[in-house]
Design goal:
The complex is a heterodimer.
Chain A: E1 2-6, E2 15-20, E3 26-29, H1 34-45, E4 48-49, E5 52-57, E6 73-78, E7 82-83, H2 87-96, E8 98-99, E9 108-110, E10 120-122
Parallel strand pairs in A: 5-8
Antiparallel strand pairs in A: 1-2, 2-3, 4-7, 5-6, 6-10, 9-10
Chain B: E1 2-4, E2 8-11, H1 15-26, E3 31-34, E4 50-52, E5 61-62, H2 63-76, E6 80-82, E7 85-93, E8 96-103, E9 107-113, E10 115-118, E11 122-124, H3 127-130, E12 140-142, H4 143-153, E13 160-164, H5 168-179, E14 183-188, H6 198-205, E15 212-213, E16 216-222, E17 229-236, E18 239-240, E19 246-249, E20 252-255, E21 259-261, H7 264-268, E22 293-295, H8 306-324, E23 332-337, E24 341-345, E25 348-350, E26 355-361, E27 365-374, E28 377-387, E29 393-397, H9 405-408, E30 413-418
Helix pairs in contact in B: 1-2, 1-8, 4-5, 5-6
Classes of the chains: A alpha+beta, B alpha/beta.
């Protein structure tokens, strides 16, 4: 079975042809770099995405709380690609979070999310610059 | 009123402004960044999605991460940051450029500098710009506004969404709205091909089974108090086929119909704009027609990757510093957009050194070859394969390409074409 995929590693958007070889390895053509072959294998066998979302800030900590335009959410992402099939479950866990400030960029908010080995991290420092930095 | 007198003032504290300011400081120039928002980062702060920094940091970062890495460097430098301050007017008084700003914290601040770097970014086109007929209910947003509401302010703009236009922000917002539990009914694109990057089509639409209607125009927005639906119809050979019009019920419309460089300030200072980009016409040093005023990033031409914004802005900062030292560009050659090329930036190259010229194609082309010609003589040929308007291209041209120019004469023109 051959599948057509578009490589999304970079904006080159290589058109890939992917199939399973007789020895069980994934065979890829159309990629212009080794990252494309890695992407094709993963997308074929175990599709993953870097998931980004935002989490609630603990009410009392929110800067300028209630003011128009104030920052009310901490942006977060998975530290690496996360299994696509489990994104809905992950988002539920993210939306249940309540993040206490201060928070630092890169701070782990959910270690080993859903047992996948992938951490969920904050992507913004609040406040910025952090006190004492 | 406070008056500041740095060597250079940078208008805008986003990716372009920060990168330009750091370069000016590195060259020993005193520099002030004026930023409208509280804090640095610009539009990156609302771009919660990953995909930034592959070139700059060899990592896939989100917008705020990319911005903070630059902001940390700016705060550790001698650059002065005047944030929460709106630039009101820029005046060219010859040697001296005057920028008047006002801020809630500091009142009126006047900045007198010998060089200016314009880095104000761009604005979204809105419903009025694309003239979508129908009623005027609540629930019609530009995609970037909705992005700010969702990602920073924690406000959900609606539950059933139609995205008009397939620009990157619209595609990213289709995914964001899906991830926050809304239903995205459709993305409607008037052109026969998507306006956004291919990876966004794959990851933001195909992953969620969101239908993409190419070659469809939005003919009406319905609803009295709140949006109730949109009517779309296919275009056949440029003409609307209303017999095949259909209505899509929804409560929210997000518009992703293009970005326009924000040049009100530049215009007021007498900066000449390029109608093809909406940004200033700049020479090989990214300097506008007003001596000492430079431009970079989305205020110059709309980029699709922040990595190229940073690259261009560093050059603008370095050139501004060189200009402050008294350096002037060598002999230059005009550059123009040739066949199948929508625009080129800058519009001049320096014959004595390497120049990077950015450009976009006019249409989707397969098996395209890029040709650089001087007075119809091909000086460089590069096989490009697949090109599309949504993906910015660049070419580097150096002295070796201009070797035989003596024959061409002083009014020679360099043409960038896709054949």
């Amino acid at each position: 079975m051959e599948r057509d995929l578009v490589c999304v590693v970079c904006p080159m958007s290589c058109a890939l042809k992917v199939r399973l070889g007789e020895d069980g390895t994934v065979l890829t053509s159309g990629n212009r770099c080794p990252r494309g072959a890695r992407y094709a294998a993963e997308e074929f066998l175990d599709p993953r995405r870097v998931v980004s979302a935002t989490a609630r800030i603990r009410g009392a900590d929110a800067p300028g709380r209630g003011e128009v335009g104030a920052v009310a959410r901490v942006p977060v992402r998975t530290a690496g690609p996360f299994p696509r099939e489990r994104i809905a479950e992950l988002l539920e866990a993210v939306y249940a979070l309540e993040v206490a400030l201060p928070v630092r960029r890169g701070q782990v908010l959910i270690p080993d999310a859903l047992g996948t080995g992938v951490d969920l991290i904050a992507t913004r420092s609040l406040p910025f610059p952090p006190a004492g930095a | 009123m406070t008056t500041l007198k740095p060597d250079a003032v940078v208008v805008g504290g986003g990716a372009a402004g920060m990168a330009a300011a750091l370069e000016l400081e590195k060259a020993g120039c005193s520099c002030v960044i004026v930023e409208r928002e509280e804090g640095l980062g610009g539009i990156l702060m609302q771009c919660a999605h990953a995909g930034f920094g592959l070139v700059e940091f060899d990592e896939e970062l989100t917008g705020p991460e990319f911005a903070e890495r630059f902001a940390e460097k700016v705060l550790a430098s001698k650059v002065t940051v005047l944030d929460g301050a709106t630039a009101l007017e820029l005046r060219d008084e010859g040697e001296r450029k005057v920028l008047d700003c006002c801020s809630a914290k500091r009142g009126v601040v006047r900045i007198e500098a010998r060089a200016v770097v314009l880095a104000m970014g761009c604005r979204e086109r809105n419903r009025g710009n694309v003239r979508i007929p129908g009623s005027r209910p609540a629930g019609v947003y530009t995609a970037g506004l909705a992005q700010r509401l969702v990602n920073i302010e924690g406000v959900v703009p609606g539950r059933r969404v139609v995205v008009i236009g397939s620009g990157d922000i619209g595609l990213i917002m289709a995914r964001r709205m899906s991830w926050i539990g809304a239903k995205v009914e459709a993305v409607v694109e008037i052109l026969p091909y998507p306006s956004g990057l291919t990876r966004n089509i794959v990851q933001c639409l195909e992953d969620f089974g969101i239908p993409l209607y190419l070659g469809h125009q939005t003919t009406r927005i319905f609803g009295k108090d709140r949006v109730e639906g949109v009517e779309i119809a296919p275009l056949e050979n440029g003409a609307l086929d209303l017999s095949r019009a259909r209505t899509i019920p929804c409560d929210t419309v997000l518009l992703s119909v293009g970005l326009v460089p924000e040049n009100e300030l530049s215009r007021g200072a007498g900066v000449e704009l390029n109608p093809a980009t909406g940004g200033p016409k700049v020479d090989s040093t990214l300097m506008t027609n007003v001596p000492g005023v430079f431009a970079c990033g989305n205020v110059l031409h709309v980029h699709d990757l922040v990595d190229w914004v940073a690259e261009e802005a560093r050059r603008a900062g370095a050139h501004a510093a060189a200009w402050l030292r008294g350096e002037r560009p060598g002999p230059e050659l005009r550059v123009k957009a040739g066949a199948n090329v929508r625009y080129v930036a800058p519009v001049k190259v320096d014959l004595s050194r390497k120049n990077r010229v950015y450009f976009r194609s006019l249409a989707v082309l397969h098996g395209a070859t890029l040709e650089a010609r001087i007075d119809r003589r091909v000086v460089r040929k590069i096989r490009k394969g697949h090109v599309q308007p949504s993906e910015m291209q660049s070419i580097e041209l150096g002295p070796e390409d201009f070797a035989d120019l003596a024959e061409a004469g002083s009014d020679a023109v360099l043409e960038i074409a896709l054949v």
